[in-house]
Design a protein that fits this description.
The protein is α+β, with helices and mostly antiparallel strands. The protein is built from 14 helices and 7 strands. The strands form 2 sheets. The chain has a 4-stranded antiparallel beta sheet, sandwiched between helices. It has a 3-stranded antiparallel beta sheet with strand order 1-3-2. Strand 2 and strand 3 form a beta hairpin. Helix 2 packs across helix 4 and helix 12 packs across helix 14. The longest helix is centred in the last third of the chain and has 27 residues. It is globular, with a radius of gyration of 20 Å. The mean pLDDT is 91.
C-alpha cells in the first residue's frame, strides 16, 4: 500500500505520474508485461525522452510497482502483485466516481496511538487523508461506509487494528450546519479547485474537432486520454463524494465528473487501439 501512496505524491503531469498512468491503463490488458522499448515509445508519444522514461522506470521499481522481466530476449517489466491489486482498486475509483445518498451509512474511525508509535500515527493520518477521510478530531476520522474495507486494510498494514475502533453510523448531526461542518472536516476549497483545474485544463478535449467528431487511433488521442486520466485519477481518492447537503451550492464536482465521462467515451477506445498497434497486442 505504501507504493500507492508514494505514487500519489507524484505531481500530476510529471514523468513518473504519466508513466504510472500508462502502466495502470495498459500493462494488464497487454498481458501483464511490456517491453521496455514499447514503454519508451509510448512515453515518447507524451513528449518524454527515453532517458527520462528509464529514470522514471527506476523510480517505479523502487516503489515496488514494477519488476524487470526479460522475455524472448526483450527487456521489459511486469507489475508486482501488490501493484496489480492497487490498480484494480484504482479502476473502481477512477471510472466509477462515488456519490453518497443522504441516508447512506458512515464510517467513524477512532484511534489512540502512543507516542512511541508516532511514525505509524503519522502514516495512518496520511493514508486516511489519501482515501478521502475527513478529520472530526485528531483521533477521530470520518468517511463513507463504502470505504470501510480500505480503512481496515490500512489499519492492518500498519499493525494498528488493536488501537482503533470502527463505528458504522447514521448521518452525523453536527451542532452547526452540515455545509459549514463538512468544510471543517474536509478541505472542500482544495477539492473544488482540483475539479475546476480539471475542467479548465481538459474541456478542450471535447470541444476540439476530434472531441466533437470522434477521435481515431493516434498519438494525439493517446496523449489526450492519458493526460486527462493522469490529472483526474487523484480526485476520486481525495473526494469522498459527499451528499449535496454537505456541499457548497456551486460545487463543481458534477460538471468535472461529466467532462471526465465524456473524455472516456471519446478517447478510451482510440487510445487503446493506438497502444495495441504499437505493442502488437490488443488492449481494448
Amino acid at each position: 500500500m505504501s507504493a500507492v501512496l508514494d505514487d500519489m505524491d507524484s505531481r500530476a503531469g510529471s514523468t513518473t505520474s504519466l508513466l504510472r498512468t500508462v502502466v495502470g491503463l495498459y500493462m494488464r490488458e497487454a498481458g501483464g508485461w511490456m517491453a521496455t522499448k514499447d514503454i519508451v515509445a509510448l512515453m515518447e508519444a507524451l513528449g518524454t525522452s527515453g532517458t527520462v522514461t528509464r529514470t522514471a522506470l527506476g523510480r517505479l521499481r523502487k516503489k515496488d510497482v514494477l519488476v524487470p522481466d526479460t522475455r524472448s530476449g526483450l527487456a521489459g517489466f511486469t507489475l508486482t502483485p501488490g501493484a496489480a491489486s492497487m490498480l484494480a482498486r484504482g479502476d473502481r475509483r477512477i471510472f466509477t466516481p462515488r456519490t453518497m445518498a443522504p441516508t447512506d451509512p458512515w464510517c467513524l474511525v477512532s484511534f489512540s496511538i502512543p507516542e512511541t508509535e508516532r511514525d505509524k500515527r503519522h502514516q495512518l493520518r496520511r493514508r486516511l487523508y489519501w482515501i478521502g477521510c475527513g478529520t472530526v478530531a485528531a483521533g477521530l476520522w470520518i468517511c463513507p461506509d463504502t470505504l470501510r474495507g480500505e480503512v481496515e486494510e490500512i489499519l492492518a498494514d500498519l499493525q494498528l487494528r488493536s488501537m482503533a475502533t470502527i463505528f458504522v453510523t447514521q448521518p452525523p448531526l453536527p451542532g452547526g450546519g452540515l455545509k459549514e461542518t463538512a468544510a471543517k472536516w474536509w478541505d472542500l476549497d482544495a477539492l473544488a479547485q482540483l475539479h475546476r483545474d480539471f475542467i479548465r485544463e481538459h474541456s478542450s478535449a471535447v470541444d476540439s474537432p476530434n472531441g466533437t467528431a470522434g477521435a481515431g487511433p493516434s498519438a494525439e488521442a493517446f496523449a489526450t486520454y492519458v493526460r486527462s486520466i493522469d490529472r483526474w485519477r487523484i480526485i476520486p481518492y481525495l473526494d469522498p463524494g459527499l451528499p449535496a447537503s454537505f456541499l457548497p451550492d456551486d460545487w463543481p464536482g458534477i460538471d468535472a465528473a461529466g467532462l471526465f465521462s465524456k473524455i472516456v467515451e471519446l478517447y478510451a477506445v482510440p487510445s487503446a487501439e493506438f497502444v495495441g498497434n504499437l505493442v502488437g497486442v490488443s488492449v481494448t
